[in-house]
Design a protein that fits this description.
Blueprint lengths: L17 H9 L8 E4 L7 E2 L3 E2 L9 E2 L3 E4 L13 E9 L7 E2 L12 E5 L11 E4 L17 E4 L9 E2 L10 E3 L7 H9 L4 E5 L3 E7 L3 E2 L10 E2 L2 H12 L2 E8 L3 H10 L5 E5 L9 H9 L1 E6 L2 E2 L3 E7 L2 E6 L3 H19 L8 E7 L3 E2 L5 E11 L2 E6 L9 H5 L2 E5 L5 E2 L4 E6 L3 H7 L1
Parallel strand pairs: 6-8, 14-17, 14-18, 15-16, 18-22, 20-25, 23-26
Antiparallel strand pairs: 1-13, 2-13, 3-12, 4-11, 5-8, 5-9, 6-7, 6-10, 19-21, 21-22, 23-29, 24-28, 25-26, 25-27, 27-29
Helix pairs in contact: 1-6, 3-6
Length: about 450
């Protein structure tokens, strides 16, 4: 990330639109320097190196089923009425390099008319080219299978290669398996383990310091006195940071005194991003705005967004700071529009945009003020169409509106109103909602 540009704070500048504000913020973020981490710590992180297969997977041709390794040609005429009778010359358990050949076997490979009893995953014996499942032999009719039997009867023909996993069927040796930029999921970790990787080079999780501000804000476990409110913002923001893939670090609550703010910002040193909530509006005691203007390298702006017009972004001691509104809903909306993509970029992710769908608005929405309005709403499928309905209380401090909704209905800034029946864009703030809509 870059912090070389020195900003000129101008609170009188015209409002920035949401997209321009986002791009200006993202211009100062880049993926964190790669770090080699243990495999299980890399889940959800972005790969920072190409992965080539050191060996084939599977490394040898093996049985895909329990049964008998055979020469397919020996079963070509097999049926229940006329089974193929083969002499059993050995047994191949999984984990052995070669079968356990029966006494008297002169040539350690399958000759015409012979078979080897074999378990799933065992090396296919020399001379065999197929596996007949136990269910297709007379062993299926035995209450207690006789492992020492001398012959087996096969009731069905098998094709060459049937029930056999060739060496390199999954991954050929030397092939490019995973490219840089891959977001590592459970299956990717399985592939890496199969190839012998226990550490992998990835972009690490960013550490995000979270600071609540205001003389009126107290911790959740403190009894409320007149004029006080409990700190919910830090916990919502910490959960959002975790959901995106970052590591939240709560650094407390700062009063409206500059000395307290300074101490809290010192506690944020070493973080990859600082999020603050409150103190950036036009009130007499909104000290964060003034502190950032005088102590840091900051550009302070207001954004054409509803809720959450006042916000700020810049650097203190080369640490990027995104100052969010104090109202809980406005703080969440601003996080989703600006902090979320910044954290994703630190992670090395390319998919910075939220999940968006189109839906029909069921109720009229006013958009006075010509700002991009993120309406808390619920989207649902009715037949083959999606419909979105605003939740009842749209106050910027009504956190329950986010709980009762499952999306943000987006009213463009150039719409003074959105009539019922309009088709609009909807942003899903929970990725699980998309699965519900597609079900």
């Amino acid at each position: 990330m870059s912090s070389n540009a020195r900003f000129s704070p101008s609170p009188d500048r015209p409002l920035l639109d949401v997209d321009e504000a986002r791009e200006r913020i993202l211009a100062h973020f880049s993926p964190l320097s790669p770090r080699r981490l243990p495999l299980l710590e890399a889940l959800g992180l972005v790969l920072a190196e190409p992965i080539r297969a050191r060996e084939s997977v599977p490394p040898f041709t093996n049985a895909a089923m329990d049964g008998y390794a055979v020469r397919a040609a020996d079963t070509s005429q097999a049926s229940h009425a006329h089974p193929a009778t083969l002499r059993v010359i050995g047994e191949a358990p999984a984990g052995g390099a070669t079968p356990r050949w029966r006494e008297g076997v002169i040539h350690p490979c399958l000759q015409p008319g012979t078979a080897v009893r074999i378990m799933t995953g065992a090396v296919l014996p020399p001379g065999a080219d197929a596996v007949v499942r136990f269910e297709e032999t007379d062993e299926a009719f035995e209450a207690t299978p006789d492992r020492g039997r001398d012959v087996v009867r096969v009731f069905r023909p098998v094709r060459p290669g049937e029930n056999v996993r060739p060496a390199g069927e999954d991954i050929p040796a030397g092939s490019l398996v995973l490219s840089p930029g891959t977001v590592l999921g459970p299956a990717h970790l399985g592939i890496l383990a199969a190839l012998g990787y226990t550490w992998v080079l990835v972009h690490p999780r960013p550490e995000v310091a979270i600071l609540a501000t205001g003389d009126e804000v107290v911790p959740p476990d403190r009894p409320l006195e007149p004029g006080r409110i409990r700190n919910s913002n830090s916990y919502v923001l910490a959960a959002l940071v975790t959901q995106v893939g970052g590591i939240p670090r709560l650094i407390g609550i700062a009063s409206d005194q500059d000395t307290d703010l300074e101490g809290r910002f010192r506690a944020a040193r070493g973080a990859d991003l600082v999020l603050t909530s409150g103190g950036v509006s036009q009130g007499d005691y909104d000290r964060v705005k003034e502190f950032l203007r005088t102590r840091g390298r900051f550009e302070i702006w207001q954004v054409r967004i509803k809720p959450g017009k006042p916000m700020a972004f810049g650097f203190i001691d080369d640490v990027p700071v995104l100052a969010l509104p104090g109202n809980p809903v406005a703080s969440v909306v601003a996080f989703l529009q600006f902090a979320r993509p910044a954290i994703l970029r630190l992670l090395g992710r390319a998919d910075l945009a939220p999940i968006r769908v189109r839906a029909v608005l069921t109720q009229h929405v006013d958009n006075s003020g010509r700002r991009r309005h993120f309406v808390r709403a619920r989207v649902e499928r009715r037949g083959d169409r999606l419909f979105v309905t605003p939740v009842p209380n749209q106050g910027a401090g009504v956190l329950s509106g986010l709980v009762s909704g499952n999306c943000l209905a987006v009213i463009p800034e150039d719409w003074p109103e959105a009539p019922a029946g309009s088709e609009i864009e909807v942003e899903l703030y929970d990725p699980n909602v998309l699965q519900e809509l597609l079900a």
